[in-house]
């Protein structure tokens, strides 16, 4: 259960290198007004075989080995970072409210998701992609990954881009985020199916599925389609009220003593429940985030005097923000840095395949979204901006790549192309939307700094009004 001093020191040095480079990359990309997640991956890219490995292969292999104690410990941090990232994504999915632009959302959700996904499946079926498959990959699982990679849109990346541009509170942003939420939920459902099929194909079953003692692919498809949907439906129906009652209960010693610990236990138990059913744990992290999203929104909001009970406030106030800060400050940057380390552009990058894959993915996604927007009655300029915004694959695309690679569904060449696809499409969306704002094609709201100043001004005015009302009340009483 303990490490030798030399091994512990090695792990600490590796973590210091990954954290420092990830945050340095994120800081630089923030100054450049680019998605910080890409900077964190770039930091890992510098520490990996692509850059450091070319300068000093022996030193790079010693610092970040692929086998041994250090590799195992870093793998654990990588997995926890992935689960917490998916959990935070789940909290964002449920916290989006209903929107009035239902016609546009409906058309884009159907056209912008179904068409590129089906197009990707068709291309995968008629193209020889055997060279991209991993040891557990099959034509079916590989085609599903190919289709998802073309169809997915990133909620965190595109929302951060629109926040920085001051357009997050506009109708344009509401349409993009509403559709992206639907796409992300379906992404993880399909991903659970893909991982289940790969598990059956590898004859490496675990959980409830292992009790069936079969490696039949048709049965695996039925099982891993029905079980994730049933799990999602039951948890979304009964999970939020149960979570609220348990988290606010004075008998919940864990929530009273450490709300962060209670949230982590809830996430990890949800992941363990999925493992017990034979589903990949990331699906449990997503559902846990969706179940606790309402509580997360309350925790993130400022406390109101005389509102919730003392027990509930003490058990939950600020716990989501604290956990989010820990995850985004340590675990998630380590995860993205390790993703960057895994990218070996010197030995596992096919530029010819990547260029036609990038062109295919961008055209299929953008044209599908543009078509849906035009059918919904949007103007050509608005439809083009929507198409470019929803072409950003960001975090979900990277999660898809790393999970499929970790399950040996795809090989390292395809993994590299998927990660680069997510990076480049996110960059393209940020640059295009920035130009659209400067051209006046997109209405802008107040910037984050202006929003803070307006909030402080409103608070000051409320305080001045309260003092004035109090003075009037006292004067009236004296009379």
UniProtKB/TrEMBL annotation:
Pfam families: Na_H_Exchanger (PF00999). GO terms for cellular component: membrane. Keywords: Antiport, Ion transport, Membrane, Sodium, Sodium transport, Transmembrane, Transmembrane helix, Transport. GO terms for molecular function: antiporter activity. The chain crosses the membrane at residues 71-93, 105-124, 144-163, 175-200, 220-239, 260-279, 322-341, 353-373, 414-433. The keyword Membrane applies. Residues 20-437 form the Cation/H+ exchanger transmembrane domain. The keyword Membrane applies. It is found in: Membrane. Residues 443-462 are annotated as: Disordered. Residues 450-462 have a biased composition (Low complexity). InterPro entries: Cation/H_exchanger_TM (IPR006153), Na+/solute_symporter_sf (IPR038770). GO terms for biological process: proton transmembrane transport; sodium ion transport. It is a multi-pass membrane protein. Belongs to the monovalent cation:proton antiporter 2 (CPA2) transporter (TC 2.A.37) family. PANTHER family: NAPA-TYPE SODIUM/HYDROGEN ANTIPORTER, SODIUM ION_PROTON EXCHANGER (EUROFUNG). This is Na+/H+ antiporter. It comes from Streptomyces cinnamoneus.
